[in-house]
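Task 17 of the worksheet. Students: predict the tertiary structure of the chain below and write it out as structure tokens. Keep your answer in the requested format; marks are given for formatting as well as content.
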Amino acid sequence: MSTKRKTTIRDVAAAAGVSVTTVSDALSGKGRLPEETRRRVQSEAEKLGYRPSAIALGLRERGLGLVGLCITPAGEAILTDVGYWATIVTHASQTLLSEGLAPVLLPHNVDLLSTLKVPLDGAIVVDPLEGDPVLTFFERNRVRYITIGRDLTRDNRSWLDDDNANGLLRLLQRTVPARTNVAFVTIGPLKSYVVDALNGANQWARGSDSSIRIFHAESSDRADIGHVVSSALGQGFGAIVAQHDRLALHLLSAMTERGIEAPKDVRLISVTDSPDLESASTPISAIRQRPAQLAELTARGIIEMIRGKPDIEKTLLPLEIVIRKSAPSIVG
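Model answer:
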């Protein structure tokens, strides 16, 4: 004896010619839908005998309390290798848990995200890419999100970051003499913190009769890093700014192999700091970010958005500059 298959929300969506999300909104009374669409969905649901379960209605009303944490990859680096990322995940998770929400670590991969079986109430994306497909996925699925850093192609206002432009400007003012040309070394995909740091470097250059030139390392392989160092030093650049601490350490190693000393032959600076820069053979001057405070503010922001409060505005955190042997202070 055969049993009749239970009508699902997908059956209603197909009959009404709309998405599953639209059916959900139409039957729960939520969402901004044309009245004609809402009536059509309700009519098809009635014809098919579809009734959403009490559990499903409760989930749509209150959510599951899940907040995604998504770290955008940067070349070969992984979460556990980057103290900045690990600190953000830890402190954001602690803040979310303290408010009864559950953090979920997400892959930066739309194909994998589309297989998620449970709905997210919100998401935090760290260092999004230009035209980031994960943000598009969240927008399409009506998932509220906040970013640390920003997608350079989007005009979204809900983002927070360290004030990298002002931080690098002040560090250069303290450690690099006027009329010194600077090589700014990048690696991996372009992210907003790099653009901001470059803006700070160019602001310094305009006020010090200097120039900034970008050198891009294809990878962190010894040969690629060595080529960048040789090119920059061969063209007379008196200072090198590394995009992040790991790159700064690779550059220092390549300099040491070639008998180049910092700061005697060239000054070396990093846009991000880590304990490894302090313990390097030549300690490296850097900007010190504030990932713990940034994570807590971001988590508070997404909590407020989930609870129906207005989106947070752009927020920049002031940074500390750390002067070490690789680029000592020029100020008496």
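Marker's comment: The chain has a mean pLDDT of 89. The longest strand covers residues 66-71.
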